[in-house]
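Note to self: the last two entries modelled the partners one at a time, which told us nothing about the interface. This time every component goes in together.
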Amino acid sequence: MRFTSEQRLDDGVLEREFTLGEIPGILWTPEAASASSPVPLILLGHPPLGLHKMYPRLVARARHCAAEGFATATIELPGSGDRPSWPALDQARADLRRAMQAGEPVGDGIVEALVLPLVDKAVPEWQAALDAFLSLPEIGGPVGYSGGVISIGIRLAVVEPRIEAAGLFAGSLVPRVMFEEARQVTIPLHVLLQWDDEGNDRQASLDLFDAFGSKEKTLHANMGGHTGVPQFAGDDAARFFTRHLR
Amino acid sequence: MRFTSEQRLDDGVLEREFTLGEIPGILWTPEAASASSPVPLILLGHPPLGLHKMYPRLVARARHCAAEGFATATIELPGSGDRPSWPALDQARADLRRAMQAGEPVGDGIVEALVLPLVDKAVPEWQAALDAFLSLPEIGGPVGYSGGVISIGIRLAVVEPRIEAAGLFAGSLVPRVMFEEARQVTIPLHVLLQWDDEGNDRQASLDLFDAFGSKEKTLHANMGGHTGVPQFAGDDAARFFTRHLR
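The predicted structure of the combined assembly is written out below.
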């Protein structure tokens, strides 16, 4: 991991951009984090729209988490932002967009073609990034995962034992095969659902919540569309991580 | 309203038993409540099992609310506890129990026979009690309603304008006719659902949540059976009231 820029935000949070091989990313640490008092880490997931585009929402989440004593970090997803384009992913995105614009039901084939390759490629990258983050003296554990493409969160929760709690956003399409993986998840989960999310099948989200194998899992459903998550719902999610990671 | 006993609990909460006509009830006020600094009020609903039986859970909720600066109050439901027995209610209860023990689907007729008369009789009593509570100098407003028979909460939210927010427990049977009333509810709602509640139809609860007319409504679903509401879910509900009533 090579840091490429560094700035101190007005609330004392240290923001560092880095590259990990070819993958760009951002790490935020609270002012008080140090080798003698390392802080827990939350991995910030995001949709495959590019880190630049997602930056305002990411930095807001990072500041919020820092205020609770957490470091946060994120990496660019394959085929997004400044990373090399990935024609198969672009094709799958275009197929999805076409189906949605035509008002057609989005078949599981389209969802699988979009999500599964992304999960297969992104998850090992997040794991490698986690190795790098945890090698920093100011980052301790435990580790949580929050938001983004829910299928990436599911796979990470199953394969990455260092992740001890996950906050997932039931706002993206989930291929049915991921439901089997969801049954294998056992860590505490906090699942956010926007009840009237225009791009999301509510019943599928409820089925997915039901499928998770975790003994402690909580669903918070709120009104409003995809990006209308109320402030208090963010606060609830922060408390979930505080309960499990501190 | 005539106070019949008074004791100071170890956390400073003043617990007063009273009768309102023939109806017994309990009022809890935080130590700091006074005529010069009146406190908001939360009405504590409960199932029709009698106040004596429900006392341990009620006093725990009352102490929790008092710590957040709320007075709380409850009254005995018609046909329960020390109030005169109500043969029609007993009959409806027996019919319900028989159907559930036989593993039969509980028909809407049975639910209506149990719930609707209870709602019709209890709601005006809660309103009269509210008049009495608000006449006390140490009780100000605003007023919330929390828990208990959800159909009573729905009706109160519709007919009682002094109630400004409600926390409802999706844990009791709701006649389909109440769904029409649910559509008329507009106050902020915090709805708790135990995902594996043995006595509750999960889909009906989700349908009911969907039916509520409120612009701000939140569903918190947690694992565990009817009485297994986790501590943190209680904390979330308390924060909902703090957000709306303070």
